[in-house]
Amino acid sequence: MELKESILELIRKAATDLSPDVEKALNEAYKNEGEGTPAKNVFGTILENVRMAREQGTPMCQDTGSLVFYIDFPVGDSEAKYREAAQWAAKEGTARQYLRPNAVDPVTAKNSGNNVGVNAPYFHFHQWDKDEVRIRLMLKGGGSENVGAQYKLPHPPIKAGRDLKGVRKVVIDAVVKAQGQGCSPGIIGVGIGGVRDLSYALSKEQFFRKIGERHPMKELADLETQLMEDLNKLDIGPMGFGGKSTVLDVFVDSQARHPACFIVSVSYTCWAFRRKTMTIKNGEVNYD
Amino acid sequence: MIKLKTPISEQEIRKLKVGDTVLLSGTVVTGRDEAHKLMVEQKPDFIREALKEAVIYHCGPVVKKLDSGKWIFVSAGPTTSSREEPFQADVICEYNVRGVIGKGGMGDKTAEGLKRCGAVYFHAVGGAGTLIANSVKEVKTVYKLEEFGTPEAFWVIEVEDFPVVVTMDANGGSIHKEVKEKSEKIANELMGI
Strands of A66-74's sheet, edge to edge? Predict the structure, then answer.
């Protein structure tokens, strides 16, 4: 299969099927809610929709998001090759209704109609020393993007100081402010440290971790576990109807900060958590 | 489970209460930011008949045009409603709309409009795009497609058994308000403030 065709397949898989770890978490959330509650009904509908989308090969959510690619490629390879293949795949995926046209020019208000525009799709390129290619794709929905938040610590309104206790507070604050707006139950990515743009980037990249995967550093793993417990006590529930599952998981990571800055970014993704990875090695393409 | 079909009378809509699950059938018109802005600023007449005693849906669908020229809905879940908060009450009252379908709920101004003009807010399951598209039986027509693009156009559709929950009723009730107040209280306890 040509590169562009295999990226088109990556888009199709991402838009129409959930990764097994996410579907499993949704099944568990369904079992966890009380019989006859609105929350249980919502999970029932969600799971039925996931099944239908997979069977029909249609987008599980009509907001097929902004396309963000993370591409790791071997020394000597060209970025342009991947960029051109992915742009072709985005156009073709839109024509085949795997994707809704989601690239709007903010100046003219015109929708390009094919998901290609300035920085759309967006590419995070990274050259690595392996002799294989890894292409990760996130379809980032707009509703959940709108509820993301960035804080600088200290944050006096909730007495959040410059430490992990302060981080915990601002994450709780962001999720309470989000309510059901980001299509809860959400998955939360938290980036601690760095300058503002890198902080958000770190929080977003956490979304490629598998549900249940804890950070190798004990302090951060403990914070993730603590936040899961805290956030699911909020009783916001699926769609904000109230219920036991407000988040499916919380992923935290940290990076060096400037002595004067303590930035915390909270990224939110909806339950329709669409991310897929493909690898190319010795001409063989695999999807995960 | 309550079954409702458009046109819906004011009397019927005022009977609905927060928490009621409804299977909705009949005429629904999609409208998002561009559509709401237009309806408030210019009050166009082309959409008046379709909206009368019918339902407006905050949705930007994935659509497909068949060789016959007919459109079909491929994926069509709700979008976040709060963006229409500045416009919604005026649209409801101006166009005699009986229901608004969306997600995430709406604010006080809309709640007041629902009460004053006799309408409810129906919550659909966000992300359930394929399932909801399957309840769309016909795309009757589309307005402003060229100008606004696919997601923002007015799609006039016929639906059958579209599953929704009443989360804001015509008597001032709102699940969103209750959940927000309760969760804020719990959060303050968790944060020790």
Answer: A122-128, A66-74, A133-140, A274-281, A284-287
Q: Is the pLDDT of residue B152 over 90?
A: yes
Q: Is B151 on the interface with A (CB under 8 A)?
A: yes
A70 and A113 co-located in one domain: yes
| CA dihedral over A45, A47, A50, A54, signed as positive or negative | negative
- Neighbour count for residue A72 (Cβ, 10 Å): 17
Owner of token pair 């550093």: A217
Q: Are B125 and A158 inside 8 Å of each other by CB?
A: no
- Cβ within 8 Å, pair B150-A270: no
Residues A20, A145: Cα–Cα separation, whole Å: 23
Q: Whole domain around residue A282: which residue ranges?
A: 3-13+60-140+274-287
pLDDT tens string A234-249: 999 999 999 999 999 9
Residue-level pLDDT at A1: 76
Query: Could you give the number of structural domains in chain A?
Result: 2
The residue among A42, A236, A239 with the most chain B CBs within 10 A of its CB, best to mutate, is: A239
| Conformation bin of residue A179: beta by default, left when phi > 0, alpha when psi is -120 to 50 | left
CATH number assigned to the domain comprising residue A134: 3.30.360
pTM of the full structure: 0.94
> Contact at 8 Å (CB) between B32 and B100?
no
Q: What is the mean pLDDT of residues B118-129?
A: 97
Output the pLDDT for position B1: 87
Alpha carbons B110 and B87: distance in angstroms, whole number? 8
